[in-house]
């Protein structure tokens, strides 16, 4: 139940042409404590409840527990979430043995596009697509739980 993941900014829309799937995601947080977050997610017509632990110092690994829940339960739980619901479309792109998940954000986070790739072990080598930009693994401001509190549109960029 340990998630190993690297996160990158995206520098062009070229990923859209390479995507084999895209899904609308709406998610909120019942708890955004830095030691644990509890997330409710609607991914298409599926609901999920996820608990994530605190990341390692380099931001590469953390505990993750996720269970499917009924869509109606997810919709009800979203109404109980802290302020700052995340709205995005996730594009999935296969690159060799990895799947890159590219999130295009909307609403208060419009303009932000982030790619994530899950690894089997921390030092696993990945092939980087040309549209991949700066690595932001471990930069807390790019965590969805933080984007719900400090949206991208409020940053002084």
UniProtKB/TrEMBL annotation:
Pfam family, any one: CYTH
PANTHER family: SLR0698 PROTEIN
Taxonomic path: Bacteria, Pseudomonadati, Bacteroidota, Flavobacteriia, Flavobacteriales
SUPFAM superfamilies named in the record: CYTH-like phosphatases
Membrane-traversing stretches: none
Start and end residues of each CYTH domain: 1-149
Protein name as catalogued: CYTH domain-containing protein
Domain of life: Bacteria
